[in-house]
């Protein structure tokens, strides 16, 4: 049974979603504040998070950022704020999807299924042996990265990005392709989240930009000739 964490302070919506999602076979954890949501996230393994943006204590954007520091669990924002800049902020904070209230329950369930399927497919495709290029070693099974023998703390999303670049090493990958394959966006999104995360990975592993090349106007490439 897949487990969903719902972080939402609107009582009526909580009860509606509890009934509908349990009918679909999901186990639901509920938190009505950001702090409670983060506590449940730390204590339980969940398959997906439904997150309200406007919470009584911590802004949903900050909750999402804290989750992204430790996990790449799919996150869907549920919010009445539907302006373009609001959606971009939500996606830039690390969310996988953004659903505007009021919404049809059928659409929410379809998006939940799509995100969990993509996550399962991505995990199934990960390599099982250690990967090495230059002075970097990746252990995909333990999801650890080492540089010069020292452990490097990458977030789950940063590691997924690095693994995908390695799988396609030597090829130029567009930002839209990275958004689709690493973040799960099926349609183009106006966001610089890819550039931001490339910067994070470079800062930790490749500050001199020796391995991850920017191909102007096209995207990024992990060099295939890296010793």
Automatic annotation (TrEMBL):
Gene Ontology biological-process annotations: regulation of DNA-templated transcription
Modified residues annotated as 4-aspartylphosphate in this record: 52
Entry keyword set: DNA-binding, Phosphoprotein, Transcription, Transcription regulation, Two-component regulatory system
GO cellular component, one term: cytosol
Domain of life, source organism: Bacteria
Domain OmpR/PhoB-type as annotated: residue spans: 128-224
Domain Response regulatory intervals: 3-116
Family annotation (Pfam families): Response_reg (PF00072), Trans_reg_C (PF00486)
DNA-binding region: 128-224
GO molecular function: phosphorelay response regulator activity; transcription cis-regulatory region binding
SMART domains, sorted: REC, Trans_reg_C
Matches recorded under PANTHER family: REGULATOR OF RPOS (PTHR48111)
Protein name per the record: DNA-binding response regulator, OmpR family, contains REC and winged-helix (WHTH) domain
């Amino acid at each position: 049974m897949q487990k969903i964490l719902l972080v939402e302070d609107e009582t009526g919506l909580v009860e509606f979603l509890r009934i509908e999602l349990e009918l679909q076979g999901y186990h639901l954890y509920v938190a009505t504040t950001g702090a409670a949501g983060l506590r449940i996230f730390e204590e339980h393994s969940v398959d997906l998070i439904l997150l309200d943006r406007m919470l009584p204590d911590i802004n949903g954007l900050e909750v999402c950022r804290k989750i992204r520091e430790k996990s790449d669990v799919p996150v869907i924002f549920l919010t009445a704020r539907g302006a373009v800049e609001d959606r971009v902020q939500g996606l830039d904070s690390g969310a996988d999807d953004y659903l505007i209230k009021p919404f049809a329950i059928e659409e929410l369930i379809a998006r939940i299924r799509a995100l969990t399927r993509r996550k399962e497919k991505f995990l199934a495709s990960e390599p099982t042996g250690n990967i090495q290029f230059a002075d970097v070693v990746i252990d995909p099974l333990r999801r650890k990265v080492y540089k010069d023998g020292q452990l490097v703390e990458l977030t789950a999303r940063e590691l997924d990005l690095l693994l995908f670049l390695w799988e396609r090493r030597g090829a130029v990958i567009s930002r839209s392709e990275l958004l689709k394959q690493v973040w799960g966006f099926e349609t183009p999104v106006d966001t610089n989240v890819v550039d931001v995360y490339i910067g994070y990975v470079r800062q930790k592993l490749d500050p001199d930009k020796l391995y991850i090349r920017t191909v102007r106007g096209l995207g990024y490439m992990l060099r295939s000739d890296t010793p």
